[in-house]
Amino acid sequence: MKKPKLVISTGAGMSAESGISTFRDSGGLWDKYPVMDVASADGFARNPELVHSFYNTRRHELVKAQPNAGHRGLVELEQWYDTYVITQNVDNLHERAGSEHVLHLHGELMKVRSMKHPERVYELSEGNLDTTVDTRDEYGDAVRPHIVFFQEAVPNIEPAIELASEADVFVVIGTSLAVYPAASLLHYVRRGVPVYYIDPNPAPVPDYVTVLRMPATKGVEELVRLLRP
Ligand code: OAD
Question: Which ligand 1 atom sits closest to the C-alpha of 217?
Answer without folding.
Answer: 19
